[in-house]
Amino acid sequence: MVRAVWTQLLSDTSIKRSSQTLTILGDNAYIYGGELRPREPVDSTVYSLPLNSNSPQPASLTTATDISQTSTSTTAPQPRVGSAATALANKLHIFSGRGGTAMAPIEENGSFWVFNSIDRAWTQLTPSDPDAPFPVGRSYHALTTNGTDTIYLHAGCPATGRLRDLWAFDVVTRRWRECAPAPGPARGGASIAFAEGKVYRMNGFDGTSEQGGAVDVYDPVADAWSTIAYVADGVSGPRARSVGCLLAVRLQGRPTLVTMFGEHDPSSLGHQGAGKMLGDVWVLDLEVGRWVLVEVEGVQPEPRGWFAADVLEGSTSSVVVHGGLAESNERLGDVWRLELEG
């Protein structure tokens, strides 16, 4: 049995949005990008929220004045939605997304935008060989990192269709390597996480339906995929969904994946509307390969998709969640902390 408690940290109109990124560096969460109105990217401001993760009490924010913003007068990536982000070497890395008047995938020739939390400035990390293959621009893809020198990029939506590719970027050599593609179908809105030396992938939307019933596992040493199958009935395992999250945590010292929320049935209005949103939280014990529905106590966030989440640094079992799209089609500006107890 796994229990959890939600604590609301903040709710403010300045950070209302969906399809954004949230990345935790040290004691701060950094929010970038997204949209408040469909297909209209917000600006390139980075919002910093102090989380006080060293406090013995649950992290808390008291007022909106705790939110700080970067200056938009310096070099910064163009506004975008559906980007993906990950933290490595105490820096925020984002890749592509959609933007401009045509809301087309932003093509930056395999480059990352990197935000340094110390000097609060952006730089661009470009591949060392401009003629070598690189992943095309896309949106609603996923990023994760091995925590030392490699960023993994998976799937998403290019100019047309969807992808199921997997790429690895070595930040030391600044080179991309195309890995074995993930099991089909191709999809956007999938979730990936790195744990125990492997990349884990689940869920997503293939253009017709949400995917579920499988956690696909990539082994970098073998350059091969395997699959952990489960019954996606909401009883034995989480129901099919997209635009949720997948995060690596440890519960009682055991390697665990946590997934939550997401869209279960797409809206008939497509990106202009909200479908059926989920509000559940599940954990997968990687040693036994079994899903458990988390029992949540007290007040909890409303169901949502298209949100952003990350694991709190300095804690093995705390997750921070921000914003997203509610089933009412309203963009949310709340921030919550989830404390998991194995």
From TrEMBL:
Give the matching InterPro entries: Gal_Oxase/kelch_b-propeller, Kelch-typ_b-propeller
Tagged with keyword Iron: yes
Instruction: Please give a single GO biological process term from the UniProt record.
Output: glucosinolate metabolic process
* Keywords, in A-Z order: Iron, Repeat
Q: What Pfam families does this protein's entry cite?
A: Kelch_KLHDC2_KLHL20_DRC7
Composition bias, Polar residues: 51-67
Renumbered to this chain, region (Disordered) spans: 51-79
Keyword Repeat in the entry? The reply is: yes
**Protein name per its UniProtKB record:** Galactose oxidase
What is the species of this protein? Aspergillus uvarum CBS 121591
